[in-house]
Structure formats: structure tokens, C-alpha cells
Amino acid sequence: MNYKAYILRLFFRIVLIVGLILGLIYTIEIDNNTYAVILGIGLIYLLVNTYTFTKRRFTAMDDFFEAVKYRDFSRWFPEDRGPKDIRFLYSGFNEINRTIKEINSQNQAQYVYLQKILEMVDIGIIAYNLETGDVLWSNDSFGDILDVPSFKNIRFVENRKPDLFNTIFETYHREPNSISIALQNESIKILISDTVFQVDDDAFKLIVIQNIDNTLNKNESESWKKLLSVMTHEIMNSIAPISSLADTLQQNLQLALEQPEESQLELEDVNSGIKTIKNRSEGLLKFAKTYRSLSKVTQLNLQRVRVSELFNNIQLLMEPSIKAKDIDIDFKISGPKLELDIDTHLIEQVLINLLLNAVDAVKGKENAKIKVEASQNSNRDIVIKVFDNGSGIPQDILENIFVPFFTSKTTGSGIGLSLCKQIMLLHKGRIMVKSIEDEGTVFSLVF
Fold first, then answer.
1. Are 263 and 256 spatial neighbours (Cβ–Cβ below 8 Å)?
2. Which residues form the Histidine kinase domain (predicted)?
3. Which of 145, 197, 346, 388 has the fewest Cβ atoms nearer than 10 Å?
4. Is 28 helix (H, G, I), strand (E, B) or coil?
């Protein structure tokens, strides 16, 4: 039975009550006591029945709201007994309880799932009430990183480690910030960031910390291994033949000194050997100089530059030599007002390097073309692209082209693209590449 049937039955009772009242008044006026008594009894019965009919519905609703007030959604209302309208009401209450229990169950499952994930990560997370200091939630990694036991209020840390408390809880780190903190007899470097959020009338602070010492040490160790491997390989390639040749020359000289009549010293051979040693030594010095050029770029001289001016400088410098090789080159800017905050000399070096690579890529190709474009993307980043329709870069070496000293050229040093990447990183930008063999390559500088 729905609420319309309930209203209809209530309306019917009200009509009967009004009718009995009018009948009672009429019988009293005509002095018909018998009918007056009968109508009075009927009126009393109907009033009691209407009161009971209305009260039981409100009583059922009151019971349900009481259960909701105390979050008691496990209560079950009987649907198989009592008046039909009440059974229908109980059925609705039970359906609401089932839905809320399902929602609570899903929320609980999601909470447990999220909690387990946050407990498994090695990043420390804590949320606490800004006014009271009571901890809303914290994972084990937070205490492990700061070397403190589990606590329910941040004043625990303040009482035991006031300096650490000021650094972590009192100082705001809106942007991720790398700081060093002292723990017992050692100092560790952590990455920290925080944010404040509001729940009803309470303000909470969420702090995220990560111990980056291990990561830095691991990356540093891997970098040193790669660097030592490269340098050892290059140095051994130069030292081994130098040592062998020097040993041979020493033996010949020794024999010539000890047995001058029997062992004739060929000055031409000595000269050739010394020349070879000289060439290999110069190669080793060139390698050291190349490595130094990669590591010396550490700071920028930034200035606001129009992209059109940057392109004009590059065009004046590179266009004559490129066109002399029968290669078409085109410069295009989507907007004349595009500006960059850059170190002009370094970015020019990057573009020159990319253009020289493009020239090598299109060498010997008919209708060789190079195109340099500047535009602004949907993220308002300024992008400079260098296109060529050359031979492309094989996919198996594409991911290694920015690795220092890696090169596929017989005369290359493997330093150019590495230097380009470092310069872009110093500008807080990035360099990307897309290439299809036998179709061409595009390098993108994103500022």
C-alpha cells in the first residue's frame, strides 16, 4: 500500500468523523437521545481508531529515525505482520537499511584497500587536526622515516624532538621541498610537501615525506658505474695500444744500445711509433675535453628573447652552409610575439647541434628538407621543433641517443645530444624525439 492509499483512508475517516458530528448535533436538536447515544459511541470509536491509525505510522517512523540517529542500520522491521500500510512502510525502511549497509560495506572495503596501499608504500603520510593536533591518520612509514613511535597527537613529537617538530609540522611546504633533518647521529635528506584541507568546521593538515637519500645514493652509484664504465673503456682503448707500442719501441732501443752493430735502429719506425703515440694521446685528451664540456654547463644567464630574433640569428648563421649542400631549410613561427626566458647562447648551441644532425640525416637524399617551427601548445608551452625527411633513427638505438658518449656515427663523440638534454633540463624544459626510419625525424624542445 502506498502513501496515496494511506491518505485516502485517512481522508475517509475524517469524512466519517465530520458526518457523525453533524448527525450527533442533529439528533440532539430533535431530542432523539437513542440515536444521539449511538452516534456518540460511534464517534468516540472512530476518533480512537483514527488516532491509533495515525499514531502507529508516526511511531514506526519515529523508531526508524531513532535508529538512523544512532547509526543502527542493522535493525530489521517485520514485513509479515501488522496492517498493510505499516508493512509497506517497514518494507521501505528495510530497503533503506539494506542500501545504507551496502554503501557502508563498499566504503569500508575501499577504506581498507586504500589504507593497505598507503601502509605498503615507503612514503610517509600523516593527516592531523590543526587546532588540536590530534592525528586523523598516519601510516607506519611516517614514523619509520622520522624514527619516532606511533603517536595520537603531534605534541608527542614536540615534547621529544622540538627541532624536528618545527621543521616538519610548523613549517609550511606548499611545493615539494628537499630538506635535511638530523636523526640521532645521522642526517638524512627528505622530500616534503603539505596541504591544508577543511572538513566541516575543522581544518586538517596533510604532510607527505619521502626519504630520498637511498634513491639519490642508488642513482649516484648507478651514474658512477656507467661513467666509470664509459671512461674505462675509452681510456683503455687509448692506453693499451700506447703501452704496447711504447714497449716495442723500448725493446728496439734497448737492443740498439746493447748491440749497435747487429741491431740497426730504423729512425723512420721510431718516428712512426712516436707519431702514433702522439695521435692516441691527443685522442685521449680530446675525450677528456669532451667530457669536461658536458659537465661545465651548470648555470644560466637568462634573458627575455623573442623567438623570431632567435630564429633570425640561427638562420643567418646556418642557412648559407645548409643551402650550399642543396638542402632546403625553412623557418616558421606561429605567432610573432612568442617570447622565451632563456640563455640565448646555450639554446642557439642546442639548435645548431640539432640542425647539424639533421644535415647528416638528409645527406645524399633527393629533395632533402629541414624545417624549424615554433608554436604554443594547448598547455601554453612554447615548442620549437626541428624536422627533417632524412634516414630516421633505428628504433633499437632511439632510447639511447641522449646517453653521454653514445653515438652511431663513426666520427661522433656522443656528446651533442647529451649536452642538448642537459641544457634543456637547466631551462626546466625537455627535449623529445620521434623518428620513423626512411621517413624522417622531429626533435621537440618544450619550454
1. yes
2. 230-447
3. 197
4. helix
334 with 376: CB under 8 angstroms?
yes
Whole domain around residue 256: which residue ranges? Answer: 218-295
User: H or E stretch including 198?
Assistant: strand 186-199
Residue type present at position 130: L
Whole-angstrom distance, CA of residue 122 vs CA of residue 208: 11
- 333-362: per-residue pLDDT in tens? 887 688 999 888 888 888 888 988 898 888
| pLDDT per residue as tens digits for the range 66-122 | 777 777 777 777 777 767 767 777 777 778 878 887 887 887 777 777 777 777 777
How many domains does the structure of the chain reveal?
A: 4
Residue 22 domain-assigned (yes or no): yes
Helix ranges (DSSP H) in 205-306:
213-258, 267-295
User: Average per-residue pLDDT in the chain?
Assistant: 78
* Residue-wise pLDDT tens digits, 16-65: 888 888 888 888 888 777 888 888 888 888 888 888 877 777 777 777 77
Sign of the torsion angle spanned by Cα atoms 151, 156, 158, 159: negative
Confidence of residue 1 (pLDDT cuts 50, 70, 90): very low
Rounded to a whole number, what is the distance in angstroms from the first to the last CA of the chain? 69
From edge to edge, which strands make up the β-sheet containing 123-129?
135-138, 123-129, 202-211, 186-199, 177-183
Residue type, 328: D
- The rounded distance, in Å, linking the Cα atoms of 277 and 50 is 118
**What are the residues facing 131 on neighbouring strands?**
none
Grid cell in block for residue 57: 505510522
The answer to whether position 111 is within a domain reads no
Query: For residues 184 and 163, what is the distance between their CA atoms, to the nearest angstrom?
Result: 12
**What gap in Å lies between CA 406 and CA 230, rounded to an integer?**
9
Residue type, 258: E
Identify whether the C-beta of residue 415 lies closer than 8 Å to the C-beta of residue 405: yes
- Name 371's bridge partners: 330, 387
Sheet containing 328-333: order of strands = 328-333, 369-376, 382-388, 440-446, 430-436
> Rounded distance, CA 254 to CA 237, Å?
26
Q: Examine the fold and report which residue of 276, 295, 314 is the final residue of a domain before the chain moves on.
A: 295
State the residue for C-alpha cell 521501505.
92
Helix (H, G, I), strand (E, B) or coil at 361: helix
